[in-house]
Amino acid sequence: MTVELRDRTKVRLRPIVPEDEPLLHEAVAAMSERTVYFRFFSPIKRMSDALAHRLAVVDYNDRFALVATTHRPNGKERIVGVARYDRAPGTEAAEVAVAVIDEFQRRGLGGQLLAELARVGRAHGIMSFSLIVLPENREMLGLLRRMGWIHQAKLNGGVYEISFDLPDLA
Ligand SMILES: CC(C)(COP(=O)(O)OP(=O)(O)OC[C@H]1O[C@@H](n2cnc3c(N)ncnc32)[C@H](O)[C@@H]1OP(=O)(O)O)[C@@H](O)C(=O)NCCC(=O)NCCS
Predict the structure, then answer these.
(1) Could you tell me which residues are beta bridge partners of residue 86?
(2) Domains of the chain: residue spans and CATH
């Protein structure tokens, strides 16, 4: 599907495919240290190939990732955002993570990715998402608040553990 961002840029949302592995490396390279740290909780410059492989290869049921893509002037596809969930085995709850490259932040993409991931999750029997957010991550806390999704936030060991029930399928 194609979505329009606040500045009218068009971005494609689609499920991740294994061939996206190199594009994931490029996306991390396009992120500031701050963005990488909030997503991975570690100041990595480059993901290990094993991590990139695990992130790119999902089963589209218990593990699902959506990528947001645009095209470079040379026509090559580029990943500008990713949202994913991992189901806790045998449950209706999943852990979620989202990241948008800095150049594309604050245009509504993070919210659109999460909203679409919630629809996909519900269609696969996921009823709640949880995630860990650093207290200084105003962007993510602001986004969750704006979406009305902060129902439970526990400060535990210096990080927020947030969980929320997914909205009904539209
Ligand atoms: C969190 C993140 C995904 C948001 O992506 P985004 O595309 O910028 O999100 P949106 O534009 O949909 O929403 C951003 C909202 O966050 C809030 N926000 C963004 N930047 C903010 C800032 N500097 N201060 C306060 N609030 C901020 C606002 O509520 C904003 O909504 P508004 O502009 O309508 O007021 C992005 O900042 C990111 O990739 N961060 C690093 C990774 C991360 O923190 N992931 C979460 C843990 S897994």
Answers:
(1) 63, 95
(2) 2-126 (3.40.630.30)
Return the structure tokens found at 51: 């991590």
pLDDT one-digit tens code per residue, 110-149: 999 999 999 999 999 999 999 999 999 999 999 998 888 8
Distance CA(65)–CA(85), nearest Å, equals 6
Q: Indicate yes or no: pTM above 0.85.
A: yes
Ligand 1 midpoint to CA 90 (Å): 31
Q: Which of 96, 145, 139, 133 is nearest to 117 (CA)?
A: 96
Cα 47 to chain centroid, rounded: 16
Cα(85)–Cα(117) distance, rounded to whole angstroms?
8
- Residue labelled with tokens 């553990």: 161
Q: How far is the CA of 152 from the centre of ligand 1 (A)?
A: 19
Q: How far apart are CA 64 and CA 30, in angstroms?
A: 23
Instruction: Work out which ligand 1 atom sits closest to the CA atom of 34.
Output: 41
